[in-house]
């Protein structure tokens, strides 16, 4: 009786706002059905669609070994168990907030201060994004988001909130940089369609570009939002993945230098999922300079608090300044080395990637391999990459990129050897493509429709609903 | 630094920035007396030695009577963290963000829920959706079952937090099913019908009924016959039934609690696609800080959608791991459940008997961490104002924070929820002595 079941659910439950009905699902399915393993399944699909930081776990594991008191389950820490287990105050453990504030300061080279009382917890950055949207905008209102952007913004910012996203188109003509003209154009487009814009969401460092915003861009964004009297949300989730110049500049620094700017408009989203590699712990942070938003978001955090067991452990870990210093330096160095190897490998086969200094991925330029400069051709190429080359990468269309041919390739969720295998496979693709072989190998799929509707999100690259026991089954990109 | 509350815009600029309607509403419910008492407690908390005349917190439904059992378990089972087995799992655990949740955790929860119900119902781990607490579970289900402007029927008196959890961000209305002391606050068919008509006459589309079983604040289980009737009503109107069974392990005796799951199984699963159970470990295990909630739905579409939505509110993988181990130890859980029930029953008897000696009646209860106390004989008039005046008096003079019935939307003034499991027996005795003295003084003044 599926029919009668379906209609008695809400509109939110019945629509596609969850984003999992996307065609890009096939990449995940292909990986889950046939995951690469160096010895057991060397022809399997290599997962390069997962933005996870797995390069520095040894440092964390060493710390955990040396600090049994941080866990409430060890003999050393068990005396704390009761107090921690009954603590449900949505302000969070003071030591946790202090440690997170301190950590965020360290990531920014101690160039700014963060007030622990402005730190609000959430269910991962996923929860923080949604909570902030609930606080700042009503259903039908909009947020401006530069493209290409993290696919799950569609779900996180719009699914249950009823808020819309208006893209600020960026393209390769200037390295995908956001311009004042671009912002104004998007703002005007929204106004013309009678949509009230409530804010601008930036992702700095950028996913999927792997670039950072410079001081000029951030100042421009701050002045634009002040002029329009709209909010400025900066998702700084990759802040500690910056491994090279240009270095990371946080909106916090620009705000501190701009006495005329309105702090009530500025909010930062953060998480430990990328910088530390702890997506399972669901540590989302919302930091706002607006008192009312802090109060409201804190009340809403009841819907997504961080487990006190986890707060306790991280309070201890992040307060260890020696460990933090060592980790940040080493993690950045390893990411930098890995990215360099990846990009050099690509360059050697004539494949370019956007120059970037951050992130767990690079933005690969495969425009030359497209049969035509269309998204249909991008989709076709993507299917070849997934099904024939056996690598799951994320096509630009899933990030709402305005130009076909760009792909995000993650490199920090695997070991070096696997990356080398991936590079050699890509190399074969490039060679074959040059000789026209790729055409013959392209398999047709029944539906190649890609809707480019930006207002209502039709497809996003999302994790699979899969019963597979792969340890990394679910992710958001 | 102090954060100013919402009442005053803090902006120094000329044009104040507007927030959303949700942000400026007070549907979060924190202005209610339920929370005002907490402030008084926070400012002057009782402590046996350092502050014996402070406010005793009896407004917090927390279970602290069985912590020693958990601590003993940990003592026996905490492994040496330097062993590679433990630390190498740290990485896998830290990376695990699959919204299905750890299978071992879901299996352990399913088995724990079965044990609580004496094996009278089976739970499929594949139907368990994880959420960060029952707070999140109830909100999430509301988003799935109802559109903004729709209504859920909820029997009164009910948990004050529902006003926020079910309504605040969802835009859904709560229409009360009025229950009263004439029949021990049981849900009657006519009350259910009235609530439904009430919603209709207000132009609200009813999407479901949400019951709490065992009930908060009544401290009593819902009778089987009532569950049957509510199920039939749901079938008739084609609406959902959410059963919040968060206190299921706190029923004083296994035999007294009947879960909706049992009733459904007895019916061969007929109508189950409309049913959903909410559970959490915050009360039965006393672990509110860990944020462990679940939704158990018999409806496949709800399970799938809830799982997707749980992305906003997953349980820390670290906590899932800990509980997977603990709850799959069936010898431990069986012992815990039995001992916990017994201790809660003892506490309940202690408080009800002592109150009885002071001439105060309580609703006959058989579950939960609180009793439902009738102070209506002490009201000058049976009005909400008098109830609040009495509450204020008990807070300021007797220095007890208890929850006035009005904060639970009780239709009859004079009832109060008094929590007894969040303190030591000695503190409970002190509180009871204070109540006794208060009653004596009141009688003396009359």
Automatic annotation (TrEMBL), chain A:
SUPFAM superfamilies: PLP-dependent transferases (SSF53383). Its cofactor is pyridoxal 5'-phosphate. It catalyses: S-adenosyl-L-methionine = 1-aminocyclopropane-1-carboxylate + S-methyl-5'-thioadenosine + H(+). Its EC number is 4.4.1.14. Signal peptide: none annotated. One of its GO terms (molecular function) is 1-aminocyclopropane-1-carboxylate synthase activity. Residues 46-426 form the Aminotransferase class I/classII large domain. Keywords: Ethylene biosynthesis, Lyase, Pyridoxal phosphate, S-adenosyl-L-methionine. The keyword Thylakoid does not apply. Pathway: Alkene biosynthesis; ethylene biosynthesis via S-adenosyl-L-methionine; ethylene from S-adenosyl-L-methionine: step 1/2. Transmembrane segments: none annotated. GO terms for biological process: ethylene biosynthetic process. It is an enzyme of class 4 (lyase). Belongs to the class-I pyridoxal-phosphate-dependent aminotransferase family. This is 1-aminocyclopropane-1-carboxylate synthase. The lineage of its organism: Eukaryota, Viridiplantae, Streptophyta, Embryophyta, Tracheophyta.
Automatic annotation (TrEMBL), chain B:
InterPro entries: Aminotransferase_I/II_large (IPR004839), Ethylene_sulfur-biosynth (IPR050478), NHTrfase_class1_PyrdxlP-BS (IPR004838), PyrdxlP-dep_Trfase (IPR015424), PyrdxlP-dep_Trfase_major (IPR015421), PyrdxlP-dep_Trfase_small (IPR015422). Gene3D superfamilies: Aspartate Aminotransferase, domain 1, Type I PLP-dependent aspartate aminotransferase-like (Major domain). GO terms for molecular function: 1-aminocyclopropane-1-carboxylate synthase activity; pyridoxal phosphate binding; transaminase activity. Signal peptide: none annotated. Residues 56-435 form the Aminotransferase class I/classII large domain. CDD domains: AAT_like. Keywords: Pyridoxal phosphate. It comes from the Eukaryota. The keyword DNA-binding does not apply. The keyword Heme does not apply. Belongs to the class-I pyridoxal-phosphate-dependent aminotransferase family. This is Aminotransferase class I/classII large domain-containing protein.
């Amino acid at each position: 009786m599926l029919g009668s079941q379906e209609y008695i659910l809400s509109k939110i439950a019945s629509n596609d706002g969850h984003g999992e009905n996307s065609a890009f699902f096939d990449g995940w399915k292909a990986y889950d059905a046939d995951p690469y393993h160096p010895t057991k399944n060397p022809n399997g699909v290599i997962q390069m669609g997962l933005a996870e930081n797995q390069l520095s776990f040894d440092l964390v594991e060493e710390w955990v070994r040396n600090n049994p008191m941080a866990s409430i389950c060890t003999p050393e820490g068990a005396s704390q168990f009761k107090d921690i287990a009954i603590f449900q105050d949505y302000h969070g453990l003071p030591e946790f907030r202090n440690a997170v504030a301190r950590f965020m300061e360290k990531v920014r080279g101690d160039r700014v201060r963060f007030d622990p009382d402005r730190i609000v917890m959430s269910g991962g950055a996923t929860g923080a994004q949604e909570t902030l949207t609930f606080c700042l905008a009503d259903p039908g209102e909009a947020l401006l988001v530069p493209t290409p952007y993290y696919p799950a913004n569609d779900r996180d910012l719009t699914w249950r909130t009823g808020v819309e996203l208006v893209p600020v188109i960026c393209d390769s003509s200037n390295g995908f940089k956001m311009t004042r003209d671009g912002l104004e154009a998007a703002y005007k487009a929204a106004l013309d369609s009678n949509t009230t814009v409530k804010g601008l969401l930036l992702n700095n460092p950028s996913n999927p570009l792997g670039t950072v915003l410079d001081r000029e861009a951030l100042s421009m964004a701050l002045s634009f939002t002040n002029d329009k009297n709209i909010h400025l949300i900066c998702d700084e989730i990759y802040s500690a993945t910056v491994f090279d110049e240009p270095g990371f500049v946080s909106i916090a620094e620009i705000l501190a230098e701009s006495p005329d700017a309105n702090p009530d408009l500025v909010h930062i989203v953060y998480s430990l999922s990328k910088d530390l590699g702890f997506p399972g712990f669901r540590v989302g942070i919302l930091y706002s300079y607006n008192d009312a938003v802090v109060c409201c978001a804190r009340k809403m955090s009841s819907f997504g608090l961080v487990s006190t067991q986890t707060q306790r452990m991280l309070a201890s870990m992040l307060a260890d300044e020696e460990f933090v210093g060592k980790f940040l330096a080493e993690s950045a160095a390893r990411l930098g080395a890995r990215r360099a190897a990846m990009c050099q490998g690509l360059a050697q086969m004539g494949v370019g990637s956007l120059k970037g200094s951050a992130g767990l991925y690079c933005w690969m330029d495969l425009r030359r391999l497209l049969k035509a400069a269309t998204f249909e051709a991008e989709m076709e190429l993507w299917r070849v990459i997934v099904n024939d080359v056996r690598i799951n990468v994320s096509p630009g269309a899933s990030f709402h990129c305005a130009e076909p041919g760009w792909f995000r390739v993650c490199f920090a969720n695997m070991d070096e050897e696997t990356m080398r295998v991936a590079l050699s496979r890509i190399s074969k693709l490039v060679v074959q493509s040059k000789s026209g072989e790729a055409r013959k190998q392209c398999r047709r799929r029944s539906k190649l429709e890609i809707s480019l509707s930006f207002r209502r999100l039709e497809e996003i690259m999302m994790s699979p609903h899969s019963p597979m026991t792969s340890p990394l089954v679910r992710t958001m990109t | 630094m102090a954060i100013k509350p919402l009442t005053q815009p803090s902006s120094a600029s000329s044009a104040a920035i507007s927030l959303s309607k949700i942000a400026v509403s007070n549907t979060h419910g924190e202005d209610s007396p339920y929370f005002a008492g907490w402030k008084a407690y926070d400012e002057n908390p009782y402590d046996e030695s350092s502050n014996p005349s402070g406010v005793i917190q009896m407004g917090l439904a927390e279970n602290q009577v069985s912590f020693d059992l958990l601590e003993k378990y940990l003592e026996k089972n905490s492994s040496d963290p330097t062993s590679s087995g433990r630390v190498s799992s740290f990485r896998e655990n830290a990376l695990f963000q699959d919204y299905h949740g750890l299978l071992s955790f879901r299996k352990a929860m399913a088995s724990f829920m079965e044990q609580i119900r004496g094996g009278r119902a089976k739970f499929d781990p594949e139907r368990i959706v994880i959420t960060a607490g029952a707070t999140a579970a109830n909100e999430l289900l509301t988003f799935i079952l109802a559109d903004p402007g729709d209504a859920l029927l909820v029997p009164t008196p009910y948990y004050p937090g529902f006003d926020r959890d079910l309504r605040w961000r969802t835009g859904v209305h709560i229409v009360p099913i009025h229950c009263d002391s004439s029949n021990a606050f049981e849900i009657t068919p006519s009350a259910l019908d009235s609530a439904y008509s009430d919603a209709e006459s207000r132009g609200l589309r009813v999407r479901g009924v949400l019951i709490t079983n065992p009930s908060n604040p009544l401290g009593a289980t819902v009778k089987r016959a009532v569950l049957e009737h509510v199920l039939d009503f749901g079938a008739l109107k084609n609406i959902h039934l959410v059963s919040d069974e968060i206190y299921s392990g706190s029923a004083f005796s296994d035999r007294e609690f009947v879960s909706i799951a049992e009733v459904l199984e007895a019916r061969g699963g007929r109508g189950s696609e409309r049913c959903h159970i909410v559970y959490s470990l915050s009360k039965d295990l006393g672990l509110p800080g860990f944020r462990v909630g679940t939704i158990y739905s018999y409806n496949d579409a709800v399970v799938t959608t809830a799982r997707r939505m749980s992305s906003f509110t997953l349980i820390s993988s670290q906590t899932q791991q800990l509980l997977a181990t603990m709850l799959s130890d069936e010898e431990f859980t069986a012992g815990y459940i039995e001992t916990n029930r017994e201790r809660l029953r003892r506490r309940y008897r202690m408080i009800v008997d002592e109150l009885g000696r002071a001439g105060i009646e309580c609703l006959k209860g058989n579950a939960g961490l609180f009793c439902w106390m009738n102070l209506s004989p002490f009201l000058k008039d049976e009005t909400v104002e008098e109830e609040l005046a009495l509450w204020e008096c008990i807070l300021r003079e007797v220095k007890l924070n208890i929850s006035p019935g009005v904060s639970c939307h009780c239709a009859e003034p004079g009832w109060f929820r008094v929590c007894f499991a969040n303190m030591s027996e000695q503190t409970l005795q002190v509180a009871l002595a204070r109540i006794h003295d208060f009653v004596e003084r009141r009688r003396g003044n009359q």
